[in-house]
Amino acid sequence: AAAAEKAKGKKEAGVKDTGPTGSFDNLKLEGAKEGAVVTRFPPEPSGYMHIGHVKAALLNNYYARSYKGKLILRFDDTNPSKEKVEYVDNIMEDLKTLGIHHDELRYTSDWFPKIEELAWQIIKSGKAYVDNTPVDKMREMRGEGIESPHRANSIEKNCEMFQSMLDGTPEGIECCLRAKIDMQNPNKCMRDPVLYRCNLTPHHRVGTKYKAYPTYDFACPVVDSLEGVTHALRTNEYHDRNPMFHWVLEALDIRRVCIEDFSRLNLQYTLLSKRKLQWFVDTGRVPGWFDPRFPTVQGMMRRGLTVDALKEFILGQGASKNVNLMEWEKVWATNRKYLDPVVPRHTAVTTTDAAPPVPFLLKDGPATVETKNVPKHKKNDSVGTKVTSYLNRILLDQVDAAACEKDEEVTLMDWGNAIVEEIVKNDAGLVTELRGRLNLAGSVKTTKKKLTWLADIPEIVQLELIEYDYLITKKSLSEDDVFEECLNPVTMHHTRAIGDANLAQLKKGDKLQLERKGFFICDDPDASPKVLFYIPDGHTKKPGNF
Hints:
Helix content is 26%, strand content 24%. It is α/β, with parallel strands linked by helices. The strands form seven sheets. The chain has a seven-stranded mixed sheet with strand order 12-25-26-27-23-24-13. It has a seven-stranded mixed sheet with strand order 21-18-19-20-14-17-22. Strands 4-5-6-7 form a four-stranded antiparallel sheet. Helix 7 crosses helix 8 (242-252) and helix 11 packs across helix 12 (328-339). The radius of gyration is 30 Å and the shape is elongated.
């Protein structure tokens, strides 16, 4: 009954039923009307999209589509020191990957002339002043509620100083434009925040045309209003700045915009600060924003996360305002649901200098190679077939061979049973060879050990299995934590292996399951050995233990 009532309410509000959507509809848009809702996704092009941005993008897209409205993609490019065309291009590519298609593409920089005009307006109305107080001192004064002497500037003086900012003069670049609100406001965001500041770094779109740029707190409400945005969906980390948003619109007497808050997505052992992620890139700890250890769209996809699993996880979080610290295990468990029914199964045997593969000599096995076409997936014929080779000399994982006992009957997966008649060890006690015979008539139900194996043939494929770990060692960093002191010393684990001959046909991005080892994605099929990344599946395991 409750579900029916909920569906009826959506229908009356003109919301289109878009199928399974998780719980995004728990955020009610004030005054929303079908065909009139305009949302925006406004990333700053100062890094690649990460999982937190994905939630914002999906949420804005969801409401634009549900109400048959419009989604604006707007790059908030007001800080030339951090922004690059590279980031713009990759954010656009990531949105395509996610299946999010905007109706309009905009840049805040398109509005710089109009924003500057409105800055003059707010100065001349006496609602803003120019201040040359040093940044650290200003921060201290705002914290203590102490007014700047420049708060009492005349309008003429403010106009003169603002022009020097726009000209980028030596005096001007020491100044900023501040809103004149209330230095005693208990909400410190309202204590005369900065509206404009100087930056002489060339802008990625407009070059050196401007010497001063609007802050996010000024540009965002202005551009939202001018572009016809009806609902600004923002994470609740901005909640204390919402009064500032409304103040700007009222001070300029321009169209109001409704703000809707939703909770930021937080994940354990994960940094979502672009500044901190950039530090890992700048210090060479990762090769780029596409690194599989990064929570970026490209990093997650490269590690084997599917778009459908990412969407399902995000939608499952809904638009709640409650702040939660989520576990990556839930993300990867969701991903497993999408991989398990469709990825092909293959076989690999690990190999190290200390623990090489162990030959198992089967005296009644085929003296020459015999082959058979078998399904790649026993429960899904559409995945296709592979060629399995059979021989009287097969290779086992060292750990499996070491676990075998004399005269024990074991199952060789996808072949049948065999009996271990002799175990050969070296002086160090390491198993170097097993000898025995087949017992294909034996029941696989009676054996305790089900072993993966490979025929010892020249066509076996050399593999490097890489498993990634978290970049930091704390589930959640507090404000007092220095993240550089919480770094995980080892974040990559390498394991050499040999795989069945079918793996020679792998292409970049192919996903597969190595029997008894887990899911993997092929990252570099042309390397020797071929590079496979382990895809977590939601279960806890010791890193590098295959």
